[in-house]
């Protein structure tokens, strides 16, 4: 284990959250790698962990790219083009992400006493670890150390989709079909993200070993 990994493990033991970043830029604060016994997160800590991600510079950057793609595809044509249209798309994309994260990773986990953190399996073959990542959509740890159906993820994303569709999205899009489409898209994104969380540490460790070996050469 590298010095940086040791520091991150100590941080996990102390705070129950991570300092890791996927590809060194993307916040990965709710992923746990090497700690078997962690402090239970209080509701305040769950909201704080989500909030850290929502105000991270990477969040504003990636939302900017998403809004740019939406502008190029002329999604929500009611917004128009130009700076005003881009601004509306940016605000909508940011709000969609924020509401979903708060509902699925802070509000419902606090209410239902579920643990929003992702615990890396870290061993076994590709298929086994892939099943572990996908299963996280449906099964989650509880604050008491057991496991439950992931009501927070499934219903949190659905509630967030309903809130966004029927509040600040264009009136023309306000339908059950839109809610289902947004919900499905979010589930697909979260599934991909769990996969990334599972396998990213392998890539990072290989990179750090190669860097350490290169530094050790005369």
Write the layout of secondary structure elements.
Elements: H1 3-15, E1 21-22, E2 26-27, E3 31-32, H2 43-54, H3 57-72, H4 82-112, E4 118-119, H5 126-135, E5 139-141, E6 147-149, H6 151-167, H7 176-216
Parallel strand pairs: 3-4
Antiparallel strand pairs: 1-2, 5-6
Helix pairs in contact: 2-4, 3-4, 4-6, 5-7, 6-7
Describe the structure.
Helices cover 64% and strands 6% of the residues. It is mainly α. The protein has one domain (10-31, 39-204). A two-stranded antiparallel ribbon has the order 1-2. It has a two-stranded parallel sheet with strand order 3-4. A two-stranded antiparallel sheet has the order 5-6. Helix 4 runs antiparallel to helix 6 (151-167) and helix 6 packs across helix 7 (176-216).
The unreliable regions are none
Number of domains: 1
The total of beta strands comes to: 6
Which bin fits the share of residues in helices? 55-70%
Average pLDDT score: 89
**Beginning-to-end CA distance, first to last residue:** 22 Å
